[in-house]
Design goal:
- The complex is a heterodimer of chains A (442) and B (180).
- Helix content of chain A is 60%, strand content 2%.
- Chain A has helices at 13-19, 24-32, 46-67, 75-84, 89-116, 125-147, 152-166, 172-180, 187-218, 233-236, 240-265, 295-303, 307-322, 324-327, 339-359, 384-409, 421-425, and strands at 35-37, 237-239, 375-376, 379-380.
- In chain A, the strands form 2 sheets. Chain A has a two-stranded antiparallel sheet with strand order 1-2.
- By secondary structure, chain B is of the alpha+beta class.
- In chain B, a hairpin with a 2-residue loop joins strand 2 (68-73) and strand 3 (76-82).
- Chain B is elongated, with a radius of gyration of 28 Å.
- Chain B starts with 16 loop residues before the first helix and ends with a strand.
- At the A-B interface, helix 7 and helix 8 of A face loops of B.
Chain lengths: 442, 180
């Protein structure tokens, strides 16, 4: 689809003048007429939703930065001022805070969609790798942003997470002091976190450009997972606009309804009450938990009894995603035709949710009832510690054992020759009439 | 190198003068770049005013037997403990083989002031402040990830790798210490 021919014809004099100097309208028009697989389902709308999320976060964030004061003495008070005194400030802040959560809901669904339909496989490895990079930057940005209100959870979250770097042998301690700008989390830390929190979203935006560039070079995947041959392009694709702009638009409306539900009716549902207490370096909250979207990784960190080992496992759980295209040995992209892998995928999603649940619990607390079973090495078997460990084991086994082995040993279902075939020959074939031929967009 | 024109000294794939210039120029650019970046990176290290807050003094007579006082030093909590005789006995009688990070109690206090224990109040795991008077070993318990410390502040159970850190300090007089 990289060789997609331009169909843009400049009409007015101004357009013609511009087209020979800076063909920016042509660029947009070509983008809108990109041939897009006809069978994309609603799981494919999260790309557009994520783009909207990034725009919302940057727009509300720029406004918030106009009212926020990044010093330890004023940070908490300035956030309270935004909530009480700045015109519409509470709405802007709630949008920004809940926007982060919704951003992560969308990105997790987007990633699981890629995983299920094999969107990371050749020739789309670079799309996936840049996507992983964006995900990592999102986590970093969300963490930095959570520190800024300077509440108790902000402070102690920063303490715990920066200490992860201190776990690195030899260089850990000096790097930790360099990162914090002092012996403890203080003004220097808050100030630089604000600077970086402002910077990273634009780095993400840059990566999104690369993500889309790679996407339009390799071509979009689709639920059937086969590449669309050149001669089938007319039959199997539709122009991006209006067919998929409308589909994305409808999904965005549904997504915004969920967004509004949080912002207007339950703005603090995903927050933590401890963050309404100003940061106090001398008191640790009884139970420190990160935001929900980091809980699975936090659980993996706690599952390992060794400090540095835990840090490695946590970063490894994200790092493994980068090499995913080379861990999957199957030639078949879509799990629609891989029933064995489909089952493992469902377990993987459940395990991800379990890890998230475990991350919010006390490690020593019993999972079922209140009874004790027996001590296995360093904890009771009926405890979140061990549930987390089993889930962590599956998480890594999914990538390092299941993916390579199942790909070699399974027998996939027959793969259709074209993306239209399952529709036209399936039992639910409603109409064999080809949908409206792609209209030429002027 | 695809530079067939200038091959005065290099024949048959040998390095040419131009190769040398390319590599030398590249290396100089990298070196210059590193020299420019270093001040930017170094500016993120603790500033002079932060380092100036390096030491504080504390009057030990404020702590009563069995009590712990928390003071703030360099933005971090410092535990000052006046231990009871039973607690000192418990700490000194612990066998080294039971410790994850073996260190005698005598090495963690000042000679003649065994009752006073001065510790950095950050768990050596991920920096939370352990709760005084709880845990399985009569010392501290970290609520974040479940590390237990004994009456000498030594790690006994849980994910923390080392004992609570004893900061550098000295007795200026019988009742006055200087930390840092």
């Amino acid at each position: 689809m990289s060789d997609h021919e331009s169909t843009y014809v400049p009409k007015s004099g101004v357009e013609k003048w511009l087209d020979t100097r800076l063909p920016i309208i042509r660029f947009g028009a070509d983008y809108m007429s990109l041939p897009t697989p006809r069978n994309l389902n609603y799981w494919y709308t999260f790309g557009g939703i994520l783009m909207l999320c990034l725009v919302i976060q940057i727009a509300t964030g720029v406004i918030l930065a106009m009212h926020y004061v990044p010093t330890t003495a004023m940070a908490f008070a300035s956030v309270e001022r935004i909530m009480r005194d700045v015109n519409g400030g509470d709405l802007i802040r709630y949008t920004h805070a809940n926007g982060a959560s919704l951003f992560f809901i969308a990105v997790y669904l987007h990633m699981l969609r890629g995983l299920y339909y094999g969107s990371y496989k050749a020739p789309r490895e670079m799309i996936w790798i840049i996507g992983c990079l964006i995900f990592f930057l999102m986590i970093a940005t969300a963490f930095l942003g959570y520190v800024l209100p300077w509440g108790q959870m902000s402070y102690w979250g920063a303490e715990v997470i920066t200490n992860l770097i201190g776990a690195i042998p030899i260089i850990g301690e000096p790097v930790l002091i360099w990162l914090r700008g002092g012996p403890a989390i203080d003004n220097a830390t808050l100030n630089r976190f604000f600077s970086l929190h402002y910077l990273l979203p634009f780095v993400i935006a840059g990566c999104v450009v690369l993500h889309l560039w790679a996407l339009h070079t390799a071509g979009q995947n689709n639920p059937v997972g086969i590449l669309i041959p050149k001669e089938r392009e007319k039959k199997d694709t539709l122009p991006f606009h209006p067919y998929f702009t409308v589909k994305d638009g409808f999904a965005i409306i549904l997504f915004l309804m969920l967004f509004a539900l949080f912002v207007f009716f339950m703005p603090n549902a995903l927050g933590h009450p401890d963050n309404a207490i100003p940061a106090n370096p001398l008191v640790t909250p009884a139970h420190i938990v990160p935001e929900w979207y980091m809980l699975p990784f936090y659980a993996i960190l706690r599952a390992i009894p060794d400090k540095f080992g835990g840090v490695l496992a946590m970063f490894g759980s994200i790092g493994v995603l980068f090499i995913l295209p080379w861990l999957d040995t199957s030639k078949v992209r879509s799990m629609r035709y891989r029933p064995t892998m489909q089952a493992f995928f469902v377990v993987f999603v459940v395990v991800g949710l379990i890890l998230g649940w475990c991350g919010a619990q006390l490690p020593d607390a019993p999972v079922i009832g209140t009874f004790q079973t027996f001590i296995l090495i360093d904890g009771d078997l009926n405890s979140y510690l061990w549930l987390t460990r089993f889930a962590t084991l599956y998480y890594f086994a999914f990538f390092f054992v299941i993916m390579p082995l199942v790909g070699l040993r399974e027998t996939p279902k027959p793969i259709p020759a074209t993306i239209s075939e399952p529709v036209l020959t399936g039992s639910h074939a409603m109409s064999s009439a080809a949908p409206a031929q792609a209209e030429k967009k002027g | 190198m695809a530079e067939p024109v200038v091959t005065e000294n290099g024949e048959g794939g040998d390095a040419t003068r131009r190769d040398f210039i390319h590599i030398a120029a590249g290396a100089a650019a990298v070196g210059a770049g590193a020299m420019l970046v270093w001040p930017l990176i170094n500016s993120m290290n603790p500033a002079a005013d932060t380092l100036a807050l390096a030491s504080i003094e504390f009057d030990m007579s404020k702590v009563q037997e069995g009590q712990q006082i928390v003071i703030k030093w360099q933005g971090k909590p410092v535990f000052v403990r006046y231990r009871t005789a039973a607690e000192i006995q418990q700490a000194t009688s612990t066998s080294m083989s039971m410790l994850k990070d073996p260190q005698a109690d005598g090495d963690r206090v000042k000679e003649g002031h065994q009752q006073y224990l001065v510790l950095l109040g950050n768990c050596t795991h991920l920096g939370c402040i352990p709760t005084f008077g709880s845990g399985d070993y009569g010392g501290w318990f970290c609520p974040c990830h479940g590390s237990h410390y004994d009456t000498s502040g030594r790690i006994r159970k849980g994910p923390a790798p080392t004992n609570l850190v004893v900061p550098e300090y000295a007795f200026l007089s019988d009742t006055r210490i200087k930390i840092g």
